[in-house]
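#struct-queue
[09:14] JT: dropping the first one here, sequence first, then the structure tokens:
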Amino acid sequence: MSAPTASSALLACASFLVRERDLARADAPFTHVKLGILLYYAQSWHLAIHAAKLFQDRFRAYWAGPILPSLLESAGAMSEGAEWSPVRRDSFGGDDAIDEASRSTLWQILNSYGELGSGRLCDLARREAPWREARNGLPPCTPLGGQISEASMATAIEIWKNDDGELSLVERMERHARTAFVAKESKR
């Protein structure tokens, strides 16, 4: 079974994140899994804030976290283990077609979540209801679960969006991203 073709909007969003992240020269490897989870949070926040999608492609509940099979297929990263390989800067084309609201969401995601490594992003996404619901009790060794509900994605973010009227949107995103550190530290 082959993955659906990635939409041009998805490829533009991926290209933007890869290009801007490369310009910032972050230290952690930028894997396909990390890119997928950043796109997952971008879509989630955009749905919660604007009640609109960044792209039409659907996420699936992969054992490591949310993935976009169409994006992995486009990047040639569908073979076993390739999802953990670094993303090449030229994998997705240009990002000229992104509107201002989408560009703003992507910037905020990169600034709030971009410094987290792939493992921490996976931990954060796997703790949340949308991924758990789509996995529906599958054993950890089962690679791919069901589609992740966009309504569930938006609802999970609503908690953070409305968390504290005193905080800016970026501060709320950063607070959400920091929960990955808190959870990791509390397990020790």
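[09:21] JT: and here's the second one, same format:
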Amino acid sequence: MATIYREPKVIAEIGCNHKGELGIAKELLTLAKEAGANVGKFQKRNPKELLTQDQYNAPHPNQTNSFGSTYGEHREFLELSVDDHRELQAHCKSIDLEYSCSVWDTTSAHEIVSLNPSLIKVGSPSNQHWEMQEVLRDHYTGDVHISTGMTTKDEMEKIVSFWEKGKGNAKKRVVLYNCTSGYPVPFEDVCLLDINIMQERFGHRVQSIGFSGHHLGISVDVAAYALGIQWVERHFTKDRTWKGTDHAASLEPAGLGKLCRDLQAAWACMTYKSEEILPLEKATRAKLKWGLYNADMIKAEHKRTASNGGEAPAKKQRKTAEVVYKEPHVIAEIGCNHKGEIAIAKDLLTLAKEAGATVGKFQKRNPKELLTKEQYDAPHPNETNSFGSTYGEHREFLELNVDDHKELQAHCKSIGLEYSCSVWDTTSAHQIVSLNPVLIKVGSPSNQHFEMQEVLRDHYTGDVHISTGMTTKEEIEKIVSFWEQGKGDAKNRVVLYNCTSGYPVPFEDVCMLEVRTLQENFGHRVKSIGFSGHHLGIAVDVAAYAMGCQWNERHFTKDRTWKGTDHSASLEPAGLGKLVRDLRATWTCMTHKSEDILPLEKATRAKLKWGQYNQALLTN
């Protein structure tokens, strides 16, 4: 079933980070609202009902974080009364934030049900506490969100089956959260792919699947959203250095604000193109697309390729294979951001390598071959960014010769970075092919230039990466069909990139769901589907990886204020470094649990899971 992307909802899990003070609790709610959260959530316990006598009377395992001489006194100190929760609920209403609470025991369930919030949470420790959940199921009509950390698949089945009985109405009331119970959770134990398992097994039986994260950073949450979850829960505090157990694994206001911002950006991107050539692409297409701006100049070439391109198969297969997550590769698209200086080009390669990029890529043009005479002789449309008196002279100034590219390739080799280049015309294709790099790129403007691509297809054996900005679906079909002929071997050589041709591209025009279209239409015919982004920020790239794009291309510069056209839509070294970091973190998270209860969860399960730590008490 295709994922339907709805507006993301963020729960700020304040829990007991208020340190037992109502004033701090209210302040945290206000900070959560200002950050963009939808829900402010607390926790409610009755320690004497919840804990065994031995647990109550034992010292806190970490005295530094303890608010009492025993663990029970510590828990009592942190508890807010029902009247306090009522006051917090009123404060939420006054600032237009939803109030919610996790309940840990039957008494607390009755108390919070009396407030009738729109949703109540059941944490991982309590998801086998049936007496408590019966209160929520049969004596409360709101939604119930249930975490599944340190929970076996059989126990999850018991949860859903329980909520399908009585007044449960699981399909309309229950949100089931993927979760790993650890504080903090290393990326390799987040196990995001268990979201897919939950969707397959329970997605048709509950309202929704959510994600409750205890990891560091915020990129993983964007990946979870891209996998289809709507609800994200993160622990929240004002200061991660405060006394208490959960602060260290919590987001502070700035982090929560960035998370809400990034999730909203990812949501805005989750669209298909409203038309094949978006409005913001039309002027660029008319100006740059080979076969349009120079139609008269290439009529003869067009006729030749029309007969050479071959016919598409009579019946096209549409299928989407299960995504296999491979190590992400980042192309630092330096392009012409070197300003025509080889020293700057080398410096940018070194900076790209230090940031963690896989490939440093340039562009190669023969302006007199590429441009019409009118284009060559016209002034640059933006004189501020021009390096010549005409557009042609501007382009000539920025060109590096083949020996320069050979030197750049040698520099890449010396620092352990792959060299690559986009080629725009037939002469440039021959020149870069002579260097035999591991991959060559065809940009969106050139993807219908079949004479040029014939050089790459039949006189070069490396991979060819092709962007599809400002390109119709019929034109994409022509590209793939062309590469399935001759020595093309599209299945083993071609990476097809989702792309929107704009600088920069607003989130609503990124149209990330076109990745899905490319996967369905061409994923079985090419080597891979990639993503070339011209948007702001880096969250969208994480979403693209989560949707199956191993290759990510971003424009790269040392200084976004430099003279030139592409700098403002480029990442600087710090931004590229964060992108690489986030993509690698996401890749590490793309696993299934190796066992139902992960090693880092076992001690927590033995200590906190209802029915485990108090088994003897319940039996009696």
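[09:30] RK: nice, looked through the second one.
[09:31] RK: The chain has a mean pLDDT of 94.
[09:31] JT: good to know. The longest helix spans residues 253-269.
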